[in-house]
Each structure stands twice: as structure tokens, then as C-alpha cells.
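Example record used in the benchmark description.
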Amino acid sequence: MEISPEVLQLGTKLAESMARNGAAMITDKIRAICASARQEDVIAGLVEIISDLLDDKSELTRIASHTSRNWCPSNRQAATSGI
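Model output (C-alpha cells):
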């Protein structure tokens, strides 16, 4: 089975998101942010983490949708038959 460039790109994006947002990575970011004495800095840092996570959620949803559409036989059949 040959892997298309599009599938390779989606896999790369998935791996990047997993590396960027692993539980340990997020925990380390939160610890570093909370070490700040200024409440404004803590809030801004946490808002940035949340925003990044939401962006990645959107990207992961897009990857899952594309994968489902193209790899699941029932979805592929529905797409080609106009269902």
C-alpha cells in the first residue's frame, strides 16, 4: 500500500500536535507560568495555552474528518454514491 503525500502531511501534523500538547508538556508550561508572581502574567499564559489547545483541537478534528472520509469504506461509498 502506497501512502499519498496528503496522508503523510496529515500524519506529520498529527505527530506535531501530539508532541506539542502531550500531558507532560502542558504540565511543564503551566508550572512555568504559575511560577510568575504577577497574576496578569499567569492569566495571559493560561489563556495562550487554552488558545493553542483549541487551535490544535480544530486541526485534529480536520485530520479525523479527512481520515474518516477517505479511509472508512462506508464513508467512501456514501461519498461516491451521493448519499
